Amino acid sequence: MEIYLLRHGIAEPADSAGTIDEERELTEEGIFKMNKGARGLAEIVDHFDLVVTSPLKRAVQTSEIVAKEMGLDNRVLVSDLLLPSKKSDDVLDFLEDNADKPRILLIGHEPLLSKLAGVLCGTNKQIVEIKKGGLCRVDVSDPALSKAGLLVWNLSPKHLRMLA
Q1: How many domains does one find in the chain?
Q2: Which of 24, 52, 73, 104 is the most exposed place for a label (fewest CB within 10 A)?
């Protein structure tokens, strides 16, 4: 099973006047860079069997950009499992329930995504930092994690855009 972890693109600052965290949007720069990053993603991954995104606006916008680029319209699941405050154990249970899907893209936030990468690789330590618009791939042979997964790569957003 290939697990892809994509952090949302560049969003409005957390301290934007009058903006609540759930409604923070991608900036113009974030949209531009995410569009190019999505083209790079499409160059290295031909499809996803399942795409799941956090319900926060910036993550949903990121998922829409990726879905449009990869022809995944109407196949993105919005889930509270990927909220930044959630625990990796809940995501692991979800992955185990979806073990019949060999290639899954999860779109969310820090610190959850980096922690999840570590857990998938068999440690409770943070082993990567996923930057805004960055993509990490971890392969697991058993979603129940009886064996540690393998960190295949962690692409910075710049590297992902360079692939476009």
Answers
A1: 1
A2: 73
Nearest-angstrom CA–CA distance, 64 and 44: 18
The domain of 83 spans 2-11+20-162
Measured CA angle at 52 (ends 113, 136), to 5 deg = 35
Decide: helix, strand or coil at residue 60: helix
pLDDT in tens, 21-41: 888 999 999 999 999 999 999
Would the pTM of this model clear 0.85, i.e. be above it? yes
pLDDT tens digits, 45-74:
999 999 999 999 999 999 999 999 999 877
Residue 78 Cα distances to 55, 105, 122, 141, angstroms: 6, 12, 27, 25
